[in-house]
User: Which sequence fits this backbone?
C-alpha cells in the first residue's frame, strides 16, 4: 500500500512503487544505492517527495508520497519504549536536487526518535547526494544531533552509518537511565492468576523501563474470549487508567489478536501489551550477540504473524472466487508474506551460526572436556555463580534476564581436572513458546551438558514453584533426565534455611558453600570420566585412534611391547577397549 498524496499518479506507477516492499535489504546496509536510484526515479516521475521507512532488520515498513516541498513524516515505532530509538529510519527525497536536511527534518528526528533521518537530493530523476542525521546525548533536555557530510549515494559508509545508529541508541538510553519515574512510561498491570504472578509481572515491567502505577487482580478460571477480563471490568479498567494517567496496560497472559483489538477500543488510546510482548521487548533490549539479536527478531516475527488481523472484507482477500479478484495482494497479505520470508531468512542465518557452534562443540567433545550447564529461574544468581567459580566477569545485575547469550568459561577443580561451565538464559513462568523455539539452539547447551546445575533463588518465597517451572522447560527441551545438582543460592539473604533434602546451600555472592559445590561437581564428573592407564600392543594400533577420538589423552609413551597411554575414559569406552586388549592391560588410576 502506498500512502499520502496519490492524486494524479498512474495505477501502474503505484504498483511499481509497491514492489519496494518486496526488497530484501541487508541488515548491515544503511541505504543501498539501488534503492536510492529507484526512489530518485520515482521522484523524478511525479515531482513529489517520497519517504520510505526501514526497520533495523532491513524491512520496508511504509512508503508515503508528499507534495513538492514536503511529505508527512509518520510516527512509526517498532520498539515499545518511547524513551529509546524507534528502531525505524526515515529516508526521503528532496525534488530540486538539494540533499541537505531541513530544520523540519531535524525536528522530526528529535520528536519521533527515528534511528536516523536521511534526505536524498533528486534532479531529473537522478540522486545528487545524501545527508543523514543521528541523535546524540541530551543537553538541557534536548537531544543533540550529529549531521553527516553530503555524500554520493555510491559512497555511503554503510557500516559506519549503521554503527552511528547503535551509538545513537546508546546515547539516548544513557540520557534516560537517570530519568525520574514521572518521565518513564506508566504501566497498569492486570492478571487472573495470583498476587505472586502480578509481582513478577511488575518486575518485568520495571526491567523494561516502566513504572507501575496500579494493579488489578481478577480471579477467573480462564480469560474471557473477547476482552480477557470481561467487558464490565474492561470499562472499569479504562476509568482506572484515566485516573492514574497510565500510558499502557500490561496483561499477565498472552492475548489473542481479537482480545488486543477489543481492549484497545475500550481503553481509548492506552497502549495494550501482554506478558509475551513485554518479555520480547526486554529480550530485544538485552540481546548482545548477533545470534541473540536474530533469535529475538525471529520470536517477534512469529508473535506478530499470529496477530495480523484484517479490518473488514476489503482487508481479507485470502480465498478465491467472486469478491476476491482485483488489484492483487492486500496490505495484510503482503505483511504476512514479508514476515514469513523474513522468518525463513532468520532461520537460515541462525542455523548457519548454530553450525559454527556445533563445530566448537565437536572440538570440545573430541578433547573430552566435560560440560556443566547453569540453568534456573531468571535472576536466581547464575551469572554471579559463574563469576565466583571462574572469575569470568560476566554482567550480573539484580534484574530479570540480565543474561541472554550463553557464556562459557573453564573452571579448575580443586581435586584436579577441569570442566566447562555454561551460563544459559533464565527461565520464567509462562515463557513464550515463540521464545523457547527461537532460543532452542542456544538452550541446546543445557541439553548436551554432562551435568546440570539447577540454581534456585533461596530468598524467593516462590522458590519451589520456580523450580517446577525450570523442570518443565527442561523436560520440554528433552533434558529432563540429565544428571543434575540442585543448588539453593542466596542463603546469605535467607532468615530460615529451606527444608530441601539433597540440595546444596550456597551464596554465590559471599562464596559460602562453593567448595562443597565444586567437590560435588567433581564427584559427578568422575562418575562420567576417570583416568586410566592403558597398554596398547602395536598389533592393536587402531585402538590409539579410538582413544584420541573418544577420550582425553593425557600422556603417551612408546615402549618395546606397545604404547602406554594415560587418558580420561568413560565406562562405555573402557568396556570396548578391554574387550579388545583384555582387562590386564587396562588399569583404572586412583
Assistant:
Amino acid at each position: 500500500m502506498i500512502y499520502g498524496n496519490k492524486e494524479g499518479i498512474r495505477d501502474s506507477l503505484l504498483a511499481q512503487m509497491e514492489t519496494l516492499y518486496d526488497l530484501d535489504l541487508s541488515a548491515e546496509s544503511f541505504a543501498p544505492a539501488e534503492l536510492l536510484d529507484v526512489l530518485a526515479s520515482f521522484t523524478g516521475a511525479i515531482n513529489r517527495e517520497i519517504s520510505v521507512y526501514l526497520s533495523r532488520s532491513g524491512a520496508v515498513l511504509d512508503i508515503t508520497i508528499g507534495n513538492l516541498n514536503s511529505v508527512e513524516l509518520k510516527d512509526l515505532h517498532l520498539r515499545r519504549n518511547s524513551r529509546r530509538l524507534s528502531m525505524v529510519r526515515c529516508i526521503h527525497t528532496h525534488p530540486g536536487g538539494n540533499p541537505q536536511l531541513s530544520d523540519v527534518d531535524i525536528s522530526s528526528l528529535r520528536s519521533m526518535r527515528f534511528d536516523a533521518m536521511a534526505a536524498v537530493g533528486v534532479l531529473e530523476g537522478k540522486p545528487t547526494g545524501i545527508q543523514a542525521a543521528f541523535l546524540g546525548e541530551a543537553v538541557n533536555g534536548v537531544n543533540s544531533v550529529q549531521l553527516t557530510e553530503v555524500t554520493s549515494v555510491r559512497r555511503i559508509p554503510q557500516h559506519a552509518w549503521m554503527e552511528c545508529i547503535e551509538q545513537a541508541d546508546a546515547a539516548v538510553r544513557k540520557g534516560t537511565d537517570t530519568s525520574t519515574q514521572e518521565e518513564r512510561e506508566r504501566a497498569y498491570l492486570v492478571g487472573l492468576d495470583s498476587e505472586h504472578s502480578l509481582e513478577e509481572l511488575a518486575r518485568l515491567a520495571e526491567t523494561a523501563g516502566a513504572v507501575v502505577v496500579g494493579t488489578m487482580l481478577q480471579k477467573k478460571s480462564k480469560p474471557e474470549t473477547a476482552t480477557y477480563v470481561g467487558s464490565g471490568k474492561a470499562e472499569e479498567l479504562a476509568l482506572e487508567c484515566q485516573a492514574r494517567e497510565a500510558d499502557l496496560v500490561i496483561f499477565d497472559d498472552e492475548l489473542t489478536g481479537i482480545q488486543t483489538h477489543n481492549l484497545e477500543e475500550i481503553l481509548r488510546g492506552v497502549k495494550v501489551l501482554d506478558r509475551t510482548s513485554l518479555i520480547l521487548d526486554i529480550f530485544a533490549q538485552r540481546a548482545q550477540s548477533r545470534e541473540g539479536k536474530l533469535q529475538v527478531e525471529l520470536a517477534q516475527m512469529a508473535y506478530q504473524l499470529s496477530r495480523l488481523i484484517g479490518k473488514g472484507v476489503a482487508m481479507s482477500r485470502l480465498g478465491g472466487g467472486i469478491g476476491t479478484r482485483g488489484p492483487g495482494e492486500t496490505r495484510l497479505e503482503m505483511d504476512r508474506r514479508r514476515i514469513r520470508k523474513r522468518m525463513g531468512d532468520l532461520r537460515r542465518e541462525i542455523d548457519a551460526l548454530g553450525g559454527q557452534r556445533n563445530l566448537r562443540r565437536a572440538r570440545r567433545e573430541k578433547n573430552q572436556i566435560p560440560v556443566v550447564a547453569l540453568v534456573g529461574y531468571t535472576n536466581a544468581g547464575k551469572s554471579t555463580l559463574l563469576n565466583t567459580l571462574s572469575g569470568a566477569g560476566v554482567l550480573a545485575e539484580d534484574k530479570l534476564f540480565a543474561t541472554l547469550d550463553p557464556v562459557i568459561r573453564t573452571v579448575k577443580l580443586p581435586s584436579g581436572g577441569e570442566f566447562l561451565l555454561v551460563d544459559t538464559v533464565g527461565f520464567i513462568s509462562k515463557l513464550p513458546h515463540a521464545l523457547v523455539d527461537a532460543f532452542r539452539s542456544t538452550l541446546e547447551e543445557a541439553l548436551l551438558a554432562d551435568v546440570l546445575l539447577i540454581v534456585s533463588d533461596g530468598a524467593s518465597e516462590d522458590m519451589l514453584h520456580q523450580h517446577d517451572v525450570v523442570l518443565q522447560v527442561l523436560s520440554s527441551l528433552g533434558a529432563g533426565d540429565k544428571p543434575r545438582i540442585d543448588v539453593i543460592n542466596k542463603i546469605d539473604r535467607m532468615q530460615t534455611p529451606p527444608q530441601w533434602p539433597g540440595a546444596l546451600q550456597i551464596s554465590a555472592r559471599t562464596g559460602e558453600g562453593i567448595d562443597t559445590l565444586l567437590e560435588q561437581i567433581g564427584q559427578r564428573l568422575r562418575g562420567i570420566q576417570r583416568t586410566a592407564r592403558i597398554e596398547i600392543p602395536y598389533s592393536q594400533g587402531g585402538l590409539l585412534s579410538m582413544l584420541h577420538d573418544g577420550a582425553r589423552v593425557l600422556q603417551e609413551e612408546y615402549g618395546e611391547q606397545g604404547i602406554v597411554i594415560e587418558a580420561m575414559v568413560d565406562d562405555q569406552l573402557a568396556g570396548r577397549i578391554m574387550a579388545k586388549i583384555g582387562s590386564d592391560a587396562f588399569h583404572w588410576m586412583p
In short: Residues 317 and 328 are 9 Å apart (CA to CA).
